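[recover] target loaded
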């Protein structure tokens, strides 16, 4: 894998609510990571202006708002997300087949023939355990539920999933090689675990078949975020 191919796989999580802070990261890391993840904290604090600021610096955006609502509302919100010019955005597969299929239909109608944002489904959050699922009335082992939801998302026309690196082989087997898999919970050798528990290194995640790695604190909390990003690329290439 070339350095540029490795770079394109890295999505840096802009986990902050402060515009100036995020602007510093975007300026420092554009060209060093492949994409920037804008999540609920940043979007609630700063809105579409945060997305436009990143795009102004030449950065690509993954809008991580995890939509989950009635089919029409999610479909319409998805069209608005795509109109922002983001590369990726997501919804919860637990919203069901109709919610996902209506979203795909609305995107195809809006961007007929042209390039559109890719939509990912969140299967089961990695913070959920068997006990969490039982508490909401789901009596199925987590890995089975993850594969079931990934297959449902694919059937509904969704482009890929966000999943734990540990779940990648099962999802690949069920959904094939052209289904995107984006994995958080990645920790390079030099970084602290923070609150992540079930982690893989970047090399392990890429080898398992992840298309994109979401990495936040190992880069954002580093003394020099640009150096940390390059060290991650060194690790991937050496591996
Ligand atoms: O700092 P860190 O690398 O742990 O950040 C990972 C990012 O991925 C955070 O934005 C976190 O919310 C997100 N994420 C995660 N686990 C999931 C889904 C999203 O860590 N299952």
């Amino acid at each position: 894998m070339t350095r540029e191919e490795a770079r394109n796989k890295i999505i840096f999580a802009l986990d902050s609510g402060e515009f100036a802070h995020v602007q510093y990261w975007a300026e420092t890391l554009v060209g060093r990571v492949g994409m920037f993840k804008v999540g609920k904290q940043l979007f609630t604090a700063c809105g579409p202006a945060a997305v436009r600021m990143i795009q102004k610096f030449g950065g690509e955006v993954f809008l991580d708002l995890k939509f989950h609502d009635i089919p029409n509302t999610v479909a319409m919100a998805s069209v608005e997300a795509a109109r922002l010019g983001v590369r990726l955005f997501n919804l919860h597969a637990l919203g069901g087949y109709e919610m996902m299929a209506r979203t795909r239909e609305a995107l195809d109608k809006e961007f007929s023939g042209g390039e559109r944002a890719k939509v990912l489904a969140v299967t089961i959050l990695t913070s959920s355990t068997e006990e969490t699922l039982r508490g909401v009335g789901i009596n199925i082992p987590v890995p089975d539920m993850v594969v079931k939801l990934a297959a449902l998302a694919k059937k509904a026309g969704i482009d890929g999933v966000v999943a734990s690196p540990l779940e990648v082989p099962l999802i690949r087997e069920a959904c094939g090689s052209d289904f995107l898999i984006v994995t958080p919970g990645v920790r390079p050798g030099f970084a602290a675990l923070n609150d992540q528990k079930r982690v893989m290194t970047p090399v392990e995640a890429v080898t398992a078949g992840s298309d994109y790695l979401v990495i936040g604190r190992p880069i954002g909390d580093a003394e020099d975020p640009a150096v940390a990003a390059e060290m991650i690329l060194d690790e991937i290439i050496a591996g």
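[recover] notes: The domain at 3-238 is CATH 3.20.20.70 (TIM Barrel).
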